[in-house]
Each structure stands twice: as C-alpha cells, then as structure tokens.
Design goal:
- This protein is of the alpha/beta class and about 300 residues long.
- It has six helices and 17 strands.
- It is globular and about 50 Å long.
- The protein binds fe (ii) ion (FE2).
Length: about 300
C-alpha cells in the first residue's frame, strides 16, 4: 500500500468563488472581522489575527463554488516528494511542484480530489506577525465542511492519499477528519451534489465567540443556527450566511486529540448530541438550504478532473 503523499500539518486557507466579491469582501472585513491584505477588482485576500498570511481568498465567479483548499506541509522537499507520490498513484498535478505565483508566496503543488476540488499543499509561505487584540475577531480558518456525493470515497481519498485520520462519524452522514491535534480540519457531509457546506473561523475563547455574535447582531445579522455546542468536536457553533449565501461559522474550543489514545466514535444524530447546550434547537430549513448550496462544477481544470486514486 502506498504511503500518504505528505504529512499535512494544518489547514492554511480557503478560496471561495463568489459572484459578489465586493460585497463579500466588505462583509468579511467590516462585519466578520477579517482584514484585507490585498485586493484587486476580481479578487481579495483576507487574514485573521493568526500566523497565516491569508485565510480567505475571494475570487469572482458566475456562481458560488470552492476555489481551492490549502494545507500546510513542513518543507519544499515534502512538496516535491508529494508530487512524486501522487504521480505513482496516477494523479497528475494541476500546478507545481514549484514556487506558487500567488499572493502569500510559498512553494506548493495543486491537484484535484475525486470530485474535482482543487487541493493545494504548500510550504515556505510569507510570514506575518500575529495581531494582538482583544477584539472578537477570528484567528483564522479552523475547518471546512464539504458536501460530497460519496462520503466513503471522499474519506478514503483524504485518509489514504493525504494521511488524515477520522476523528468521529455523525452516523453515516458526516465524517470529521483531522490533520493535527484539532478534532477536525475538514469534514464531509453526504449530500445530493458537491458543494461547500460551510467554512468555520476560530474565535480564541467562548467570550470572543459570543461577542462576535453580538457584533453581527448590531449589524442586523442574526445566526441561521446557534449559538450552540456540537457533540462531535465539542466546539461551539453559530452559523451565518455571507452576501453570496455561503455559510460561515464562528466556533471556539475545538476538542484536542491525543493521537495515541483517541478512538473514533459514531455519534447518533439526536438533538441532545448535536446541540449539547440545548440552546440552538434543530437546524432550520433555511440553514439546511444554505449549507446544501448550489452544485459546484469547480474551476475549469479538464486535464485534472477524473484523476484516479490508487491505493
Ligand atoms: Fe463547522
């Protein structure tokens, strides 16, 4: 059996394709609490208070979709080795390995997952310093949840090829995968079509989390669902819709996994386990609709789509 292509260290950033770049950028900067580090007419790059150069890239597109997910590896040599290992699995690169000609720099590699999502791994991105603030603003992106038409195939790819571990299942509906001590950095939700389900932003504490919700309320924006606390991951949640209708989440307190001791569990989808505090109630039709999103054909990349996974 082939080893994973690399040791993924962290989720760095997400690129979202939206038809509302200007409005979405204004929302994420002036309401959500990110900071624009660079922008042009069709794109914007935003950071949190943490160590990533940017955590969100917004790109102009006719409809909502995922641009790419970017993960960190430790060194450029690991990127090169990952490219060789992908090749041996019959998966060609979309770009790289090599210097990433992009905002934030880095040495990386891009390839497609089985549903045509663009995955990037990178090392040596530009440094930024932490922003020290008591404000209720996100540190960065902490997890991405993706709707998949084949949850078993998605989990197989991200565990087998990318070396992630399944932390928990929510019945056979959701799978939570980790690449470091955080309970999940990515999760898959079985659905009728491929789409972004939601992007979660880490608040440092429950106090920041609640004050963030309060700031949105002052902007006239109330949660689609939450505040509450999930069973799987033990994290707080509050979900909102951005100007494109994509779901963004404030969260805090994600469970930390002891790699040697953790045992994967299957959570039954009952209210007392998906809403530990009993404050959120069941998800509304409205939040479910936003999370279902629109079918995402992905960015144009005909050469890469359909690349086979071998194990
Ligand atoms: Fe989440």
């Amino acid at each position: 059996m082939n080893p994973p292509i690399a040791r993924i260290r962290a989720l760095r950033s997400v690129e979202l394709r939206v038809p509302t770049v200007t409005d979405s950028t204004d929302f994420y900067e002036n309401v959500w609490g990110l900071k624009v580090v660079e922008r042009d007419g069709a794109q914007a790059w935003l950071r949190g208070t943490g160590m990533q150069h940017h955590v969100l890239q917004l790109s102009d597109a006719p409809q909502n979709g995922l641009g790419r997910i970017s993960f960190a590896v430790a060194t450029p040599a690991e990127v090169d080795e990952a490219a060789r290992r992908l090749e041996s699995r019959g998966i060609g690169p979309i770009a790289g390995p090599g210097p990433l000609e992009q905002v934030g720099g880095g040495y990386g590699l891009r390839f497609a997952d089985p549903e045509g999502r663009v995955v990037e791994i990178s090392a040596d991105t530009y440094a930024v310093t932490k922003i020290e603030t008591g404000d209720a603003v996100p540190v960065g992106v902490t997890h991405v949840v993706l709707n998949t038409v084949d949850i078993d195939a998605a989990v197989a790819f991200y565990t087998d090829v990318l070396g992630m571990r399944v932390s928990d299942w929510s019945e056979h509906q959701m799978a939570f995968l980790r690449c470091n001590a955080d309970h999940h950095s990515i999760a898959f939700n079985q659905a009728e079509w491929t789409a972004v389900n939601h992007i979660a932003y880490q608040m440092p504490t429950v106090d920041h989390f609640m004050r963030g919700i309060g700031r949105l309320r002052h902007h006239g924006i109330t949660p689609l669902w939450g505040p509450g606390k999930h069973g799987p991951g033990d994290n707080t949640f509050s979900y909102f819709a951005d100007p494109a209708g994509l779901v963004c989440e404030y969260t805090s307190g994600i469970a930390q996994v002891d790699e040697d001791a953790w045992l994967c569990r299957v959570w039954r989808r009952v209210p007392e386990l998906s809403d530990l505090w009993g404050t959120a109630g069941p998800p509304s039709k409205q939040v479910r609709s936003h999370m279902a999103g629109v079918p995402d054909p992905g960015p144009a990349r005909p050469a890469a789509v359909g690349a086979a996974v071998s194990s």
